[in-house]
Amino acid sequence: MADDYQEINRALIRVYNGIVWIEEKELRESTFRDLTIKEMHAIDAITMYDHQTVSEVAKKLHLTPGTMTAMVDRLIAKGYAERFRDQEDRRMIRLGLTHKGRVLYRAHRAFHNMMVKSFLKDMDETELKTVHKALHNLEDFLEEHS
Predict the structure, then answer these.
(1) Over the stretch 33-65, which tens digit does the pLDDT of each residue have?
(2) DSSP character for 71?
């Protein structure tokens, strides 16, 4: 059992590092090379669909609103995001993605979709349920410690 835990721990570390390495490499070699990995993840958190406030996006990313505001300022200056007033409550400022931001959002989502398809390849229903349960357990752990 201890050997299984150690192998799973090593695999999780390799997977995490591999994902970050690939994302950073792809960013450096793309037309989006002006972004950092954190800025790319901020674009993903802003999303194309839910126009959230800076505070809402900051909470998703576990950042302070001040840190998130500075990041949004950089994303706006680079042409990836925009601020706009809420139509119902003009006092609220919401975030959205520009065309350039939406293109990156789709590319990043496509990478994640390919990765998940590869991860789940050739799994049967029972294996899928086990993976689903294990990931929920990990999410619960991360939520408790964030």
Answers:
(1) 999 999 999 999 999 988 999 999 999 999 999
(2) H
Tens digit of pLDDT for each residue in 61-115?
A: 999 999 999 999 999 999 999 999 988 888 899 999 999 999 999 999 999 999 9
Quickly tell me which residue has 């990836």 as its tokens.
80
Cα separation, 62 vs 113, in Å, equals 23
Q: What is the pTM for the complete model shown?
A: 0.85
Name the maximum alpha-carbon separation found in the chain. Answer: 58
Residue 138 has which token pair? Answer: 């990990």
Q: Side-chain half-sphere of 101: how many Cα atoms within 13 Å?
A: 25
* Bridge partner list, 83: 95
H or E segment and range at residue 86: none
Helical (H) or strand (E) element with 98: none
d(CA 46, CA 23): 18
Tell me the C-alpha distance between 86 and 88, whole Å: 6
